[in-house]
Amino acid sequence: MKRFIFILIVISLFWGCENREYKRFTKGSESAIVTVVEDSLWKDIEDLIASKVEKTIRTPQREKLFYFIHIPLEKFEDFKYAKNIMFITTLDNDDSVSNFVKTAIPERGIKMIESGSRNLFNEYDKIAHRQNFIVLAANNEKELKSYLDTKGTDIFDCLKKGFINRQFDQIYYKAEQKDLSEQLFKKYGFSFRIPNDFEILEENKSAHIIQLGRSSPNRWITIYWENRGFNKILDINWAWKMRYWLGKNIMGGTYIEKEFVTSRLVEWNGRSVNDIRGIWGHPEKTMGGPFSSFYFYDGVTDRIYFLDITIWAPGQDKNVYLRQMELMLSTFYTKK
């Protein structure tokens, strides 16, 4: 009876927040996933789900993009404003988490789980503003493990989408320097959405260099372009040499650790963009951190662009700052 009453209280807390006009903002870590799951089930799936979700990045230390914090349902009230919340259960159980999910999810959702047509449910802004709320459920543990084994990366994709939504809300929430963005576009034919706390540090039109930045911690954006670069081969070797040249000549003589450079292809509003990530350092000063450089040819302006992000945040986790700035540069445009 006590368990039933407790579940009703939690459900009222959970669903009651949804209908209020006023919601609190989320708080806490961007990377932590507050995970409500019965102890024995968590013990059986922890390693499997972690292998699908807890990806790492060097900054230079290894930082997890997301990581799980397992809590019992009784502690949910203390964490309900977390930025990432996840419930995991199986319908064949009679524990408090399973009963909560079976009561909270609409009947249509329960039927989807029972038929195997859907296991993952995701909602943004559920209890608090900028919150990513996820429910993962299956008929039994065998089906749950099968889902994690074959589709577990879908959880990471849900978390990533929520992170992107939250970051755009946060980055441009206070103010956006639209006048400065317009000024850059009129002068150079390109621009991006600039938050209120960034300023131009260097502007050299003849050298095709613009650098913006802010402090606390130190973050820099360097934009370099070359005219008429249609026939140029843009591969990882060219990008590595370009980043080395910028570090030595524009960024105070810094260097990059070539052995830690990784490459990937991303998409910015339909544009395919190459990206290299890695670690930078200084030959004389105790300085270093992550960088991310994007490069591509643009037919509108007939130019090659090389856009670099560099971060120096000693003693702090850096992966969130890095990903925030990558999202900022994803708004780069050469036509309106």
The 3D shape can be described as elongated
Q: Give the overall pLDDT as a whole number.
A: 92
Helix content: 25-40%
Could you give the count of β-strands?
Answer: 15
- Cα Rg: 23 Å
Uncertain ranges: 1-6, 15-20
Helix count equals: 10
The chain-level structural class is alpha+beta
Largest beta-sheet characterization: 8 strands, antiparallel
Q: What is the multimeric organization of the chains shown? A: single chain
Strand % is 25-35%
Task: Report the end-to-end length measured between terminal Cα atoms.
Answer: 62 Å
SSE series: HEHEEEHEHHEEHHHEEEHEEEEEH
Number of separate structural domains: 2
Structure, explained:
- The chain is built from ten helices and 15 strands.
- Mean pLDDT is about 90; it is low at about 1-5 and about 15-20.
- It is an alpha+beta fold.
- The longest helix has 19 residues, at about 155-170.
- The strands form three sheets. Strands 8, 9, 10, 11, 12, 13, 14 and 15 form an eight-stranded antiparallel sheet that branches. The chain has a five-stranded mixed sheet with strand order 4-1-5-7-6, sandwiched between helices. The protein has a two-stranded antiparallel ribbon with strand order 2-3.
- The protein is elongated.
- It has two domains: about 1-170, no CATH class; about 180-330, Protein Transport Mog1p, Chain A.
- Helix content is about 35%, strand content about 30%.
